[in-house]
C-alpha cells in the first residue's frame, strides 16, 4: 500500500484535480490520499490557506472581510463547477467555513485553527466526490475518524504516538480513502493545525501508521534539486537522499518538503518519493535510510533569510560557569526560540529568526542581558541569512570548508559566522542577506558545476 500526498499546487484547480485523479487510479496500491488546500495557480495567485488566515484574523478583531470570504468561496465554487460536481459538495464546504467563522466570533480559542483547516477539508471533500463521480469507490476520512491525535499547540501541533495504532485500522478499508492534511485533534476533540506546510507531516504520519511500502509526495517540480531553483537556473536534480540529509536541507530552506515530515517516515523506515503531478513519469527523488557512499560529499546547498544574530561578549566568559544557560534562560523566559548558538572564548552568538524577536521584545531582552549578565557588549545584527552545505560524510572529508570559503571569497561575500561540527551532515555559514544569492551561486559552481 502507498500513501500519496498532493500539495497545494496539485489541487489548485479542476484541471490539477483531474490530473491527480489519473495518477491515483493508475496504480491500485495508491489507496490512501492526503491533500493540501488549493494553492497558487500562477505566481501572483494567493493560496486558500493564506486567504483563510486573513479572514480569520479580521473576524477575530471584529472586522468583516467580505473580500477574502468571497475569494475563498469563488475558489471552491470554480473548482466544483469545473469538475461537474453536485452543488451539495459546495454547501458542505461553505457550511464548515461559516461554522468556523461563527466559532471565532464566539471567542472559541480553536476557531482560528478550525477556519485554517477548511482549505484542506474542502480539497478532501472535492477530491473524494470527484473520484466517486469518475466511478472509483472512495471515502472522505476526517482526521478525527482516522485517529490523528495531537498535542494542543495551535499552529504547531505535534503528533501523539497512539495515532499510529489508530491509523493502522484504516488498512481494513477497501475503498480509496482521502484524508485532509494539516490538522489533527487533541484528546479533548479540539482541532489543531500543524505548522505551515504541514500537510507533508500528515502524509508522513499516515504512511507510518499504515506501515505503507512508500510515501509519495506529489508537488510541482520533477525532483528535489541540489539548490533552490529560484536561485540557480536548471540546477542538478537529486535522485536520492538520506532522511538526515533531507531533514537538514528542509530545515535550512528547501521548502519542497517540511522538515518535521521526515521523522514519522524515518521511524518506520518508509521510503519517501518526491514526484511531479505535472510530469508523473519522471522518477523523482527517493529519500531513504542509507545510501552507498557517493562521489559528491556535498549533496545540497540550502539557504534562507530572515535571521538575526544576538551577539554577546564578556571578558572571561569561558570561566563563568552557567553563562550560556543564563543567556538562553532569558530567551526562554521571553518565549524566544533560537536556531543556533556558536560560541568563542569571550563571545557567544545566538542565531534567531527575526520574527521571534520583534522590536519591543528586543528591548526587554537586551536590557535583561545587560542587567543580569553584566556583559561588555550586546548587539543585534538583523538581515542575516544562513547557508547550509549538507551531505553524509561531508564533515569527514578533507578540504570541503576550504573550497566553501574560497567560493565565498570569489563571490565577494564576507562570512559572518561558521558553524561546523554540531551536525555530522551539515556545515553552516552566516552572511548578510544582500550577499545570499551571489554566495549560493558561487558555492553551486564550486561543488556542482
Ligand atoms: N531544492 C529545491 N528543490 C525543489 N524545489 C524547491 C527547492 N527549494 C525550494 N523549492 C520550491 O518548492 C516548491 C514546491 O513546494 P511547495 O510550494 O510547498 O509545493 P506544494 O504546492 O506541492 O505543496 C517548488 O515549486 C520550488 O520552487
Ligand atoms: N495549506 C497549508 C498546508 C500545506 O502543506 O500546504 P502546501 O502543500 O501548499 O505547502 C499551508 O499553506 O501551510
List the helices and strands and how they pair.
Layout: E1 2-6, H1 14-25, E2 30-35, H2 48-60, H3 66-82, H4 87-105, H5 111-116, H6 118-133, E3 138-140, H7 143-146, H8 162-168, E4 176-180, E5 183-185, E6 191-193, H9 199-209, E7 214-219, E8 224-225, E9 237-238, E10 240-242, H10 243-251, H11 262-267, E11 272-276, E12 285-288, E13 300-313, H12 323-333, E14 347-353, H13 359-373, E15 377-390, H14 400-411, E16 417-420, E17 426-432, H15 436-448
Parallel strand pairs: 1-2, 1-7, 2-4, 3-4, 7-11, 10-12
Antiparallel strand pairs: 5-6, 8-9, 11-12, 13-14, 13-15, 15-17, 16-17
Helix pairs in contact: 2-3, 3-4, 4-6, 8-9, 12-13, 14-15
Aspartyl phosphate binds next to helix 9.
What does this structure look like?
The protein is an alpha/beta fold and 449 residues long. The protein folds into two domains: 2-288, Carbamate kinase; 300-448, VC0802-like (2-Layer Sandwich). Helices cover 38% and strands 21% of the residues. The protein is built from 15 helices and 17 strands. It has helices spanning 14-25, 48-60, 66-82, 87-105, 111-116, 118-133, 143-146, 162-168, 199-209, 243-251, 262-267, 323-333, 359-373, 400-411, 436-448, and strands at 2-6, 30-35, 138-140, 176-180, 183-185, 191-193, 214-219, 224-225, 237-238, 240-242, 272-276, 285-288, 300-313, 347-353, 377-390, 417-420, 426-432. Strand 11 and strand 12 form a beta hairpin. Helix 2 runs antiparallel to helix 3, helix 3 (66-82) packs antiparallel against helix 4 (87-105) and helix 4 (87-105) packs antiparallel against helix 6 (118-133). It binds adenosine-5'-diphosphate and aspartyl phosphate. Adenosine-5'-diphosphate binds next to strand 8.
